[in-house]
Automatic annotation (TrEMBL):
Annotated membrane topology: Multi-pass membrane protein
Annotated GO biological process: transmembrane transport
Cellular compartments annotated: Membrane
Name of the protein: SulP family inorganic anion transporter
A cellular component term, taken from the record's GO annotations: membrane
Sequence intervals crossing the membrane: 20-37, 43-60, 115-135, 169-191, 203-226, 265-287, 308-328, 348-375, 396-427
Pfam families xref list: Sulfate_transp
Keywords linked to the UniProt accession: Membrane, Transmembrane, Transmembrane helix
Domain of life: Bacteria
Source organism of this protein record: Pontibacter mangrovi
Chain ranges of the SLC26A/SulP transporter domain: 15-383
Annotated InterPro entries: SLC26A/SulP_dom (IPR011547), SLC26A/SulP_fam (IPR001902)
Amino acid sequence: MTERGTKVNYLAHLGKDIPAGLVVFFVALPLCLGISLASGAPLLSGLVTGIVAGIVVSWLSGSELAVSGPAAGLTVIVLNGIETLGSFEAFLLAVVIAGFLQLVLGFLKAGVIGLYFPSSVIKGMLAAIGLILILKQIPHFLGADDDFFGAMNFFQSNGRNTFSELGHAFSSIEVGALIIGVISLAIVLLWDNPKIKSNKVLSMVPGALVAVLLSIGLNLLFVNFMPELAVASTHLVNIPIISGFSDLGTELQFLDLNALTNPSLYIVAVTIAIVASLETLLSIEAIDKLDPHKRRSNTNRELKAQGVGNMVAGLLGGLPMTAVIVRGSTNVAAGAQTRVSSFVHGSFLALSVFLLASLMNQIPLSALAAVLLVVGFKLTKPALYKAQLKLGGEQFIPFIVTILAILFTDLLIGICVGLAVGIFYILKANYKSPYFFHKEEHRDRELIRIKLSEHVSFLNKASIVLTLDHLPNDSHVVIDGESSEYIDYDVLEAIQEFKKTAHERNIHVELINIGDVAVMDMH
């Protein structure tokens, strides 16, 4: 079921969801491993979380397109948590407790917080993620990066930063990796061509799959015939080889209940729960903006799903998880339609651990970097900057400040800075004009009139969205902005998105003096 009460035919979209899930898998595989490495955790722990997120959380999630997994934004928290608690086994107990706290937050309906993130900040976050993906993947694309594949922070573990790493990369190019990267990028771009998309056979095969398989073949050719071009093992995917349950038992670690008496355990658990929940709500709000069908996710259900996911992951020896914007945006860009794509990605992660590890370990990271370069560009298209600039300073300044803050710090700090700037403009706009929201129903209850007040600010977005989401099916809704001198862009966007999808609930929408807005498009 979707949040608007319409049934989803999951079988009808398999032709798009399975290829999309495969693309997300190729992106998620090195990210899971890289984040484990950066967190000081066992290499398999990130894959465990990715598998649980795909196979379990996808069906519990409040979103059709979000994809969960271990998040780069939590690496510092995980690293410090393991050090504080003295062992990874004790940290796993904190992950389970954090999951329980998230479950409680879901039942307390704390997901409404997601509606209070300004549109300019969310779009700034998406654009920043796009820029970071491009900047961070160029060194891997060149075969010259010794930092982990999932790195997202400005300052890196090897002492360099995002920009100094680029200088180092261009002075240490690995020619074989670059050749593979260029060919992979060309294939991914070619597969975006309308002629390929219109071909029934080729459109069923993800461009990323073709690029990855060809990259493996090219590297094998280099190894056998041109060893000087062979990609170094440090620039290949590296999954632990599991040949049986004994190996699995050796690789996995399980929680230590003795840590229950340690007061620090609960501080770490609360920290994980808060940060993971915020990152999830931010990602869900961003993915909703990218969704071509403009479905609105159930954020309370998402918090419950994340809670269950973290409890299961902690019990199985995995890292904490969140809904991850890199995976989610890749999912949308790959053409996913439903949660099946996330499930497919999790299933392939499980297969890669138990059956395909040897094959996966032959994939050059430069080929996977090529996939992320395309995703990054789609998130930070020049058209997005132009559109935000046209909206004026109240939208553009928080947008650009969010981008710069995320680019030079990390996701959560950048979002906080962007929110602070956004709130300044909101308070400035609300200084003189109060807001009044009035809903009028006719006696026959078939016509619902929503009359907006003189000044409608972003602060009113949550109540308006909730009102629209709970309007009865088969009704005629009139949204009247005739008396409004100012309607905030975020509110206009919410109203227009409601109008676009109202027909799914057989609601006829009539807008009076409500301006149109441009809605972000990934395609």
